[in-house]
Design a protein that fits this description.
By secondary structure, the protein is an all-alpha fold. It is 87% helix and 0% strand.
Length: 354
């Protein structure tokens, strides 16, 4: 096979790989998610196990039991805190929002009427589109029944609890077994490769492992920072249901494009137009504090832990979200990480010059 044919074959395989691998992951991966999650957590706990083994002179089974039950205890505490505190506040917040829908409708109508003169100056097509959007949004608010909706979702969640319980048990059993046998699994895996290939495989797996664990850690650190800043800011502004609102801000912040501004800025504008200057200005300040903190911390954390720039990470998250939904938010960056690892190990070679 000549060089040209080799290049064509490699290019074809790369194109097919970029198409087939994501589609395969989309359909196959959900069935293996409990085991994948358990394996990733075992990788995150492994440095603690090694510390206890090397520094504490403990046997592996003892070290694994210590880290496993510590992790289990923290997990159960978080579940208890979420159920007893945040869930209660979330239901109260939804009830409060349902009661104030008429006030929100009134504010939107007043705001809309005040800007009618400006809207009329716009081209007719744009003005009609704005009017239809606002009227449609008001109709949605009129027919919105959050209490009934939450009731039906709560029923669905309750009926799904046995399934979630089985999955959780499966994850923790797999986590314990992975942690106990991680070194054996790795050594057994390398036996399937020739000596000449092991170095490349080791580079790829090391890069992917570090970047994957680093990505999870980076998202956790950034979300924790956002939650703490939001909670402190909301507490200073004396906002009710601050635990639930801070969690909602974090969830929205994880989703591509939206960010904290999609929650805080409309709320701030609403408060200012209602004459609540302290609350409105405070929410704007909180938005800038969160944004500036993330802009300072995010590039360093992402760069150090996963080796991807913020722009590359944002693009991969957005494309993954649009193509594969919420799972794509997490797995699209991992495909970029895998590709970079294959290039670094010299498994994939490309040299594009124009």
């Amino acid at each position: 096979m000549n060089n040209y044919a080799k290049k064509v074959l490699v290019a074809t395989l790369i194109v097919l790989g970029t198409i087939v691998i994501p589609i395969g992951l989309y359909y196959i991966l959900p069935h293996f998610l409990p085991f994948l999650l358990a394996y990733l957590v075992s990788l995150m706990l492994e440095p603690i196990n090694q510390l206890l083994i090397n520094k504490g002179k403990l046997k592996r089974i003892i070290a694994v039991n210590i880290t496993y039950f510590l992790f289990l205890g923290v997990f159960l505490l978080l579940i208890y805190f979420t159920i007893t505190k945040i869930t209660t506040e979330m239901f109260n917040l939804i009830g409060f929002f349902q009661e104030n829908i008429p006030n929100i409708q009134s504010w939107i109508l007043n705001f809309y009427q005040q800007f009618q003169d400006f809207i009329q100056l716009l081209p007719k097509e744009i003005a009609d589109q704005i009017n239809q959007s606002i009227k449609g949004f008001i109709q949605i608010l009129t027919s919105l029944d959050l209490i009934s909706s939450i009731g039906s979702h709560t029923y669905n969640l309750t009926t799904a609890i046995p399934n979630y319980f089985i999955i959780t048990i499966l994850v923790f059993i797999s986590l314990y077994l992975f942690s106990l046998n991680l070194h054996k699994i790795n050594s057994q895996f390398y036996k399937y490769f020739k000596d000449s290939s092991r170095e490349k495989v080791n580079i790829v797996l090391s890069e992917v492992k570090l970047a994957t664990v680093g990505f999870i850690q980076a998202q956790f650190i950034l979300s924790t920072i956002t939650y703490i800043i939001s909670l402190i800011g909301l507490a200073i502004l004396d906002i009710r249901y601050s635990l639930a609102i801070a969690l909602f801000i974090v969830i929205v912040d994880i989703l591509p494009i939206l960010g904290t501004g999609s929650v805080l800025m409309p709320w701030a504008i609403f408060s200012l137009t209602r004459g609540k200057m302290f609350l409105g200005v405070g929410l704007i300040i909180l938005f800038f504090v969160i944004t500036i903190s993330r802009k300072i911390i995010e590039p360093r954390i992402l760069g150090e832990r996963i080796g991807l720039g913020p722009l590359t990470t944002l693009i991969s998250i957005w494309v993954g979200f649009k193509v594969f939904g919420i799972l794509g938010v997490f797995f699209a960056p991992l495909l970029i990480i895998l590709f970079n690892a294959l290039v670094k190990a010299d498994v994939i070679r490309y040299n594009i010059k124009i």
